[in-house]
Amino acid sequence: MPMAALICFYLLFPALVLYLCYRYPPVNTIGAVIICYLAGMLVGNFFILPEAMVELQDLLSSASVALALPLLLFSMDVRAWSRLAGKATLSMLLATLAIIVVAVGGFLIIRDQTPHAWQLGGMAVGLYTGGTPNLAAIKTALHVDSHVYITMHTYDTVISLIYILFFCSIAQRLFNLFLPKFESRSCAGSEGKTAETEAIDSYTGIFNRDTLLPLLGAFGLAALVLGASLALSGLFPEAHGDAVTILTITTLGIACSFIPGIRAIRKTFQAGMYLIYIFCLVVGSMANLKELFTRVNWTILVFVIFCIFGSLLLHALLCRIFKIDTDTMIITSTSAICSPPFVPVVANALKNREIILSGLYTGIIGYAIGNYLGISISYLLKTLF
User: Fold this and answer.
1) Measured CA angle at 293 (ends 289, 299), to 5 deg
2) How far apart are CA 282 and CA 43, in angstroms?
3) How many other C-beta atoms can be found within 10 angstroms of the C-beta atom of residue 368?
């Protein structure tokens, strides 16, 4: 495949995926992230790619994540979140505590089986408090081997689908047996919340002049954030440069979100997610399917299963202690384990639209803290063990 054609594929294919998700509900059920990831794997394994493409793939994967992070964070309203129901905040904190405990436990189990155990522990904490952007960012910060990353991401995709199906089927009835049932606070304002939820994955009107020009300015600001982060990282030893870059990008992105004019720019979250879709395509095309599926990495597979369902069980037990209701526990677990785009899917299955806003905000907070926690836990595990 010519290099120019491959670059066009990376940049434009996510637009086709988003159209298909908008046009066909079954496609939307699968999700843009999974489709882009699988499409990249198919292209990388069934087409002959130029040898020079390896360096470009590394550049595209790193740059797409670095620019996506500030765009995702610009729309976060920390002050608004502070006014939301305390139980959702507490439930998110309990979910974060649960994955930290379980990931460290998983590290202790597999540390003698793989030299990448300390990296896997940190990636699990970042991934299961935030989502794919955090996993990608921590991969870059810790110089994680691409094969280890793609293996963990692949197993996570499969196990997370099972997890979502569980939440959309029998989870509510099961957890209602020992957690309080959700009590509706009011019906007022539900339409507004629904509209806000629908907008999080809507690209409608993004090319309108009133939306596009400010959004281009947001891209420019994201580039400035990236440039400042790279400059700051140059003051530190090279071994820690990428970690400093990612953490600085996260910090500056959150700082910019406190400026009303920046936070009010429409479609910054969607633009950031588009870059994440590009990242999924690029990384997927770097995978070796034959090696991946002919030799199952049982260490990573068991670690992923242990982290997802172990943290879910611990989170549920903690919610029982603190009297968190079932729906709040499920939606905050969804936003932590699978990220905000899955929140409306699960909320719809629970027939509870009141919890959508809490799920979205806790998920965005997870995006913000995931990099700090994941990188810190990794270096802590490496230092102690």
Assistant:
1) 120
2) 10
3) 21
